[in-house]
Amino acid sequence: MTDRFLTGRTAIITGSNSGIGLGIARALGGAGADLVINSFTDSAEDHALAERLASDHDVTVRYIQADMSRPDQCRALVEQAGRCDILVNNAGIQHVAPIPDFPAERWDAIIAINMSSAFHTTAVALPMMRNGGWGRVINVASAHGLTASPYKSAYVAAKHGVVGLTKVTALETATDPITCNAICPGYVLTPIVEKQIPDQMKTHNMSREDVIAKVMLQRQPSGEFVTVEQLGGTAAFLCSDAAAQITGTSISVDGGWTAL
Description:
seven-stranded parallel beta sheet; Rossmann fold; globular
């Protein structure tokens, strides 16, 4: 696998102006892919990020705003990109509450953004991949796509749905040079998670180290956060020739969480 093995490919990564999506964008750009990054905002910072990625990796990078809760905008994102060799469905949100107290509008938003958006983008991307004679669909699911936790009904349901969609997409493209797989991360140290640590320290009256070990990573046997760089490397591997016969599977990157 050469360093620039994705030169000439175009990758669309949803929800990619920070966190996991940005980590994957950096890895694919580093492998030579031109990038389309996305979020629901349309700020100067978003477009500046695209310019920095282009400069850092010597690739073409476009920022396209799209609200992934809206089917028409999900589809328009891929159509506006004009080409899609690699589709990374990463956009997601979270809300935590017991089922009787879970707001219906939050349920609808999580299902729409975390699961339905992947269907809509994939529906537009697959014909492009078939026309191009090659394709990779990577769905960022979660350890919660394979197991469950209380108070996360919508998130767990959506991520289980993403794993199911991954399998169907793989079967429908099995005779094409197209693969579809899910990456299932455990707890990832993103800027959003980093910001939660001080609040958790106050809530539990614990040190930073104890909050990480006893609250955040209690279900992650390695006792370490997954990094966005590790997830980017996993995504890049799935785009390589070595992964051409890996399709329809879920790859856990969770420090042993789902082995319990």
